[in-house]
User: What shape does this take?
Amino acid sequence: MAEPEFYARVSARAGVSEASARALTEATLRTLAERLSGGEAADLSEHVAHELRPLLARARVEDPQAFGYDEFLRRIAERAGATPADAERGARAVLQALHRVVGPAEFNRAMAQLPREIGELAQPAPRV
Assistant: This one.
C-alpha cells in the first residue's frame, strides 16, 4: 500500500484530516518501534511503503522499551500534538491499516510482544 493510500485509510478510519492522519501515523509507528524488539520492528518495516520504513527502523539488537497502554497513547498524543481521544482513534486506525498491509501471521507475531490492550486496538470495533 502506497504512503498516500495508507494516510487516506487512517484518515477515514479515525475520522481526522489527512494532515492529522499523517502525524498520527508517524507517531504511532515510532512508538510501536520503541515497544517492539528491533528485529520485529524491522520485519514489519519490510511490508510498508518505503517512506514509512524509517519510522519503524531500529537496530535489530535493541531491546524494546517496557511500557503499557496508557504510556503508548501518551507518547502518540505528544508526538502527534493530538488529544488523548484522537491518539487512541489514530492508533487504532494505524494498527488496523498496518494489519491489512503486513498480513496476519507477521502482524500477530509483533502484537504478541505487546500488552493485550495495545494489541486489541488492532481489532475491529464491535458493531452495536
